[in-house]
Records
---
Amino acid sequence: MLQWVHERARASKAHAVLIATDDERIAKTAQSFGAAVVMTAASHATGTDRIAEVSRTLQWDPDEIVVNLQGDEPLMPPMLIDQVAEVLELHAGAAMATLAAPILSLEEFFDPNAVKVVADSEGRAIYFSRAPIPWDRDGAASGPASQRSFSGARKHLGLYAYRVGALQKLATLAPTQLERTEKLEQLRALENGFEIRLVDAAERPGQDVNTPEDLERVMSQLTTK
């Protein structure tokens, strides 16, 4: 799976592709297929913190843009890696950019592994949640289980672009209450006033991997290609 993710990243317009890890097993696997690896501390609670360490180690310029592609996204289209970086380039005042896609079913709407996001009229993220948002009050007259409406709901795609300076500042901040409650690191940015730009993905990505069942489905797709 790691090699598939690496190949997706290499197919984008990124100037360099690195695998950041604290695990020697992952490092050896990555090096076996020719990937560049940066070892990091094992104490990082989030990918944001890990990438911030890499940016300091490699002394990246504060204005550089770095994209965090998580290792559980073997079906991520390379064009989305380019898209999220381009969104951040277009909005000089933003610290981060990320992507979303329409929610397609009630099952996805209620799935806590499918993170939902809402934004303002200018495309600035307002909130991310594992809960079903926005909630149609009139669509659930008999209580939550009776909800049949998910119109306008958007799923957050776990793909981020950061300005290096903002990334390093964010990593110095303590986890916030909302971040700890929802287990969503991007809430630390919102609670501290960072602007996150959000757009709909130009193409819907394939299945990410959150559970063993997801892994089986993804591997089935990869091995039949």
---
Amino acid sequence: MNEKFKIFDNLLSQQDEDFIEDFFMNEKLPWIYHKSTVIGKKNQSQDFSWFSHKFITSNEVISEHTKFILSIFKKYRIENLNFHKTYNMRANLLTHRKLIRVNHQTPLHKDQPYPHWVMNYYVNDSEGKTDLNGITKVSPKKGRILVFDGSIEHRAFLPIRRDRCIINFNFLKY
């Protein structure tokens, strides 16, 4: 992949998209609460709480659901990404904030300090665009896949009406 980012729509079957949405959005997965999106950030008052479910951390399988969820994505070819070599994988859930003003966002960050690719799979339709530090803003759309160079700082805008759920994958570049 030579570009800094690519967007894929309708790559997964409708059946797989519906299954993933149901699995992640209907109380079938245990979630962990986090006070802020950027770990170790000193000024957390400017950050927002969220939930995650870790599947793979530093190439180690953490969740009993990992093999099953990965099996769905392994059926599809996504340019230069090898799901057998997923280094980190987690689901992120930002709950909607009805009383918040438009354009509130998480801090800019990079997922990992080493060279990697990021793939975000959008589980459901929502607000809360992904901002690739001024390069582009991607709207969450059920089944949409965003792949980008992990050296790009990025952030999420907060959803106002519907929860925002993504599956975040990190692949080593080497």
---
Amino acid sequence: MAKITKLVLPVAGLGKRLRPLTFKTPKNLIKLNGKPLLEYALEEAKPAGIKEVILIISPEHRRQFEQYLAAARKKFPDLTFHIRIQEEPLGNGHAILQAADLAENESFAVRFCDDIIIDKSPLLEALINFYEICNAPLILLERVPREEVCLYGVVKVKKINSQPFLYQVFDVIEKPKIEEAPSDLIIVGGYILTPAIMSHLSRLENSKKFTPDNELWLTDAFRAELKAGGKLYGWEFPGKRFDCGKLTGLKRAEEFMASGCD
């Protein structure tokens, strides 16, 4: 099994939940504790053995990201950076597809930079290590209060007894009613995706199987892989997550870091 060396960062969001901060600055360049949100993902990359980083950006933000990367290339000299453009906001699965030419039929890591996860161990390195155990697509999971499951993608799982906090996933349901949710484990912003997942995304795009909101979601590709008899796994990470894609989450993260907690 080839080592994971590529990281895709979908940073093309418009950041509506972070307004007014995002009127002039792209969401993932908003600063948290003095650093852009994007930079936290880049710091995860080095200990994980990542060599190439692919940024999926909106066309209107190209100048700001190119300016940021001019400095980032000096700060992270071991990383090679690429930019790909998502011309329209057609969902996270569509964003991932923009990296298809660089994925080159390999498995690769994905991080959504507005999910800041704080833990004593490097998150991306641990995620890749679990992928090497599973040898199948792997998603980050978080347990949330039952009343919040209707806001997220929720998984139906079975615990793998030999590995703490590792689960086999049997279904993914996007924003279910509370009484219909199969668990209180939700998908958060980290994945290891395989060529099979990319094939499902490509097929779904070509057949125009988008959501009613005209978006292509990763959860549709996960369900397609399960339907085809493939396997999907989830890791319930031990750290603390902050949803920095909204003002309240960004504020809580700032307060947490300022307090010196770990």
